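A reminder from the course coordinator: this example appears on the midterm review sheet, so study it carefully.

Given structure:
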């Protein structure tokens, strides 16, 4: 079984005078080799999985991290997924095009199924097949005529009653548009398919050094809101 472990990390909040203590146990150089993420978490580390019994492995970063973290266990629906990941190069390779992905953003969306689907589904395999077919159809019909370069790969999720989609796009607004269409228009045997949708956005690390992606950044649509919570230390 081929798959990925997406490890999301959030930096711990700490008073300035404790910084040396944090550095003593937190491998910041390794964290810097992870992927910048926006929103609930700050960094993303992706691990390849070749065998099912390796899904519970913890990376050295996970073992030493000070702060909140979350692991999402994802599996490909076949042994030849559309994209493969290089842990050393921090790159996703488009297998069909035989080249590294150069989109500015990667994003992972989890779509949990509605709980009442359990009573209507014939089998979980049948439900996943229907979800994948419906996902492709909704994207195709909902975005017909769009010139947006937004690609995706559907993945299964271990430990969650749902499906996940890995996105590749230069515009986060294009990703969110498709997420909303999938959530609103996906049906299963006359009822809603998905209960909700949760998306975590990351920046392609290809643009961390040298080419900073400035040409793509200048063309970004949409807005981001930043909220800071300040705490007075006694």
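Designed residues:
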């Amino acid at each position: 079984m081929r798959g990925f472990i997406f490890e999301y990390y959030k930096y711990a909040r700490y008073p300035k005078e404790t910084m040396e203590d944090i550095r003593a146990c937190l491998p910041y150089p390794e964290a810097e080799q992870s992927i910048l993420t926006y929103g609930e978490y700050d960094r993303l580390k992706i691990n390849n999985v070749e065998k099912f019994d390796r899904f519970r492995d913890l990376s050295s970063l996970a073992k030493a991290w000070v702060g909140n973290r979350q692991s999402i266990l994802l599996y490909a629906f076949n042994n030849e997924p559309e994209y493969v990941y290089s842990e050393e190069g921090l790159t996703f390779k488009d297998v069909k095009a035989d080249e590294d992905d150069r989109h500015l953003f990667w994003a992972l969306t989890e779509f949990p199924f509605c709980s009442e689907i359990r009573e209507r589904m014939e089998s979980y395999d049948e439900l996943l097949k229907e979800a994948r077919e419906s996902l492709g159809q909704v994207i195709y019909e909902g975005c017909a005529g769009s010139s947006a370069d937004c690609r995706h790969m559907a993945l299964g999720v271990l430990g969650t009653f749902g499906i996940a989609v890995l996105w590749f796009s230069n515009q986060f607004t294009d990703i969110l548009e498709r997420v909303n269409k999938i959530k609103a228009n996906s049906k299963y045997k006359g009822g809603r398919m998905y209960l909700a949708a949760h998306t975590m956005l990351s920046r392609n690390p290809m643009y961390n050094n040298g080419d900073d992606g400035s040409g793509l950044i200048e063309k970004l649509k949409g807005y981001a809101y930043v909220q800071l919570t300040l705490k007075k230390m006694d």
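The two ends are 52 Å apart (CA to CA). The chain has a mean pLDDT of 84.
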